[in-house]
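Weekly sync, protein design subgroup
Attendees: M.S., D.O., the rotation student, P.L. (late)

Item 1: inverse folding check
M.S. brought a backbone from last month's batch and wanted to see whether the design step gives back something sensible before we order anything. D.O. pointed out we never logged the input encoding, so this time it goes straight into the notes. Structure tokens as presented (85 positions):
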């Protein structure tokens, strides 16, 4: 089944930054929490923005949540198809 959904693979550091952005933490708070420099956090954040084609944290959160919802919908459709066989 073609989904039209391109998988997004995040490195551990990117995932850590993204999860903390979603919690509403500032760059400085994220840096302190995961023991990275502020510059490193900003670099990973910029890479996330580029990867998701967004300009700010709010857009990133919305786009990532939409991505997760699409994955969930695809999984539910697959379960129905497998269960219906």
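Designed sequence read out in the meeting:
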């Amino acid at each position: 089944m073609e989904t039209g959904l391109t998988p997004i693979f995040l490195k551990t550091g990117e995932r850590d930054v993204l999860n903390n952005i979603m919690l509403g933490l500032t760059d400085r708070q994220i840096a302190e929490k995961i023991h990275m420099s502020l510059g490193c956090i900003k670099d990973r954040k910029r890479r996330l923005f580029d990867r998701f084609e967004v300009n700010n944290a709010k857009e990133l959160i919305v786009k990532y949540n939409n991505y997760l919802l699409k994955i969930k919908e695809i999984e539910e459709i697959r379960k129905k198809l497998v269960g219906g066989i």
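Discussion: The helical segments are 12-22, 27-34, 38-52, 57-83. The mean pLDDT is 90.
Action: P.L. to compare against the previous round before Friday.
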